[in-house]
Amino acid sequence: MSHHHHHPGTGKILKWSFAATLAFVVVELIAGLRASSLALISDAGHNFTDALALILATIAFYVQSRPANDVKTFGYHRAGVLAAFVNALTLVVIGGWLVWESWQRLWRPEPVQEWTMLWVSLASLALNGSIMLGLRHEKSHDLNVRATFVHMFGDALSSIAIFAGAIAIHFTGWSRIDAILSLFIAALIVWTAWDIIKESLNVLLEGLPSGLELRAVTNAMREVEGVVDVHDLHIWSLGSSAHALSCHVLIEDMPPSASDSILRRLNDVLCGFQIQHTTIQFEHARCALSESGCSIQAVSHQHDR
Known about the structure:
Layout: H1 10-34, H2 38-64, H3 73-107, H4 114-135, H5 143-172, H6 176-204, H7 214-223, E1 227-237, E2 243-251, H8 256-271, E3 275-284, H9 285-289, H10 294-297, E4 302-304
Parallel strand pairs: 2-3
Antiparallel strand pairs: 1-2, 3-4
Helix pairs in contact: 1-2, 1-4, 2-3, 2-5, 2-6, 3-6, 4-5, 5-6
């Protein structure tokens, strides 16, 4: 696993960012209700998707740093992914409701306190900006952190839009701007949440990790010297960044001491695909090719590591 280049404070930054974002969601929600600004309410929703991304990144970050042989790491990974799935579903509902509300508001505009909008959006921008600054070192190493960084960027953009909207409302008195902004942000929420749903469902349904091709892995394994064939291959995700594989490998008839080096080479190849948990079962070619009830004579050693 890659710990050596992790920035030492990243876990701490992620935890604090999560706490700060969650606190801000509450503040923004209250401000939005007070100012009767739907844009602020939907931005609070969008900030909540960020909190979700942050908690996912935090869980993944800490689980990665635990020893791989600990059986419990499976549970933590799955718990995080399941939580993300449930939350994302909730967010789709919230986003849908916001789209509906904004649509209603377009036809029946309500007066909006633009000054509250202005100050809250500035605060939001400051928060997202500082989290982005804190995570800038780590985003090149960690996929989850990079996703969080992108979330924050999207959020900073919607804060700028609300800020501009508040100024526009102040000078034109056209409060429909608020509903239009809200419509865009709500669409963004649904889009982000849908992404999280897709990704977490893939892990929960033991799907092939995104970015991996089964054929590519099989071919790479067949290239290894001494391997005749590979079959019964399964690859699945334990969590966002831990992948597992099990398969049967057909090799020439040889003593276990000789097959050990093949196992080592296979695991090296698989490490290149970010697959660390492997169970590889060897079968010997000589008996597999003879017709007589081979399955009984097949010498298969199980290697688990």
